[in-house]
Design goal:
Keywords: Membrane, Transmembrane, Transmembrane helix. By secondary structure, the protein is mostly helical. The protein has helices at residues 2-22, 26-49.
Length: 52
Amino acid sequence: MGVLAIGVGAALCGSGAVAHFRERTPRNEMLLALGGFCFLLAGLFVTRSGHF
């Protein structure tokens, strides 16, 4: 479960990086990066805490 959340977070962070270079609006970039960061933190917490 934690590895899945880390993978989703990494994919969202990568999408935010792509949006930074492709789109003119910083809103999409910010939302993707923030969502990815939240998924990364949640995945790291679940992995380190031993749940699942």
